[in-house]
Design a protein that fits this description.
Distance between the termini: 42 Å
Number of strands: 0
Order of helices and strands: HHHHHHHHHHH
Strand content: under 5%
Number of helices: 11
Amino acid sequence: MIALIALPIAAFVLLSALARRLLHRGGLPADWPAGLVVGGLLLCGFVAMATELLSLAVLLRSWVVVGVWIGLVGVLAVLLKRWPKEDIASIEPVLPKSFREASTAGFWVWLIVGVLLVFTLVVALCAPPNQHDALGYHLPRQIRWIDMGRVAHYPVGDLREIQFPPLAEYIQMHTMLLTGGDVFVHAPSWLAYMLAVLASALACRALGAPRAAPLAALLVATQPSLFMLSVTPKNDPLLVFAIVTLGWLAIECLNRQRC
């Protein structure tokens, strides 16, 4: 069942491709970094909506969740295939030319950021969950939801199991339902960490300082608590991603005087 993790990965890539087209149509930067960041927001929205709807019908079961993800991938594939080609023709390159040349400082800063991302990804995939609060209430609430087939309150000895906002746990629960274990419960935090790094660079570009984008990405990537939490099944990295991303989009709205 571990191979089923390919479904949310494929959905994220397709949502990012769709996001690029939506950004391009709205007159916003539409390179892959922007597409990945907005694709992450769309993925969060889908998981929240799917989880709540399945919960209403008490259908948070592995086979149902697998079907939902297969359906999403199929719908996105058809939608992207039928998208008018003229809307894609002028999408911007992935990175400015200066960031692709080894002679620039920006290239080396981005390389350091890339090494940090790869290092944390390896740790996230190889290390088992071992944080006391993750084992105390982040993961137990997911197991209880899976057992009940729905997300609902239940008798607890630790109120944090039913008090904390559940989006990060929703995403982690989907990885558990798809794979039958906790191998990928760190992945949502790492993905949020990576997208927050990209969003900070996009915010610099939106502010008219693209040369500062690598430095902004490095500052976010090396922020101590975020760096440590990127390899845990906690909800803080997702919150950072949401704040930085919404900040970038707010700057874009202000620059264009429209939403």
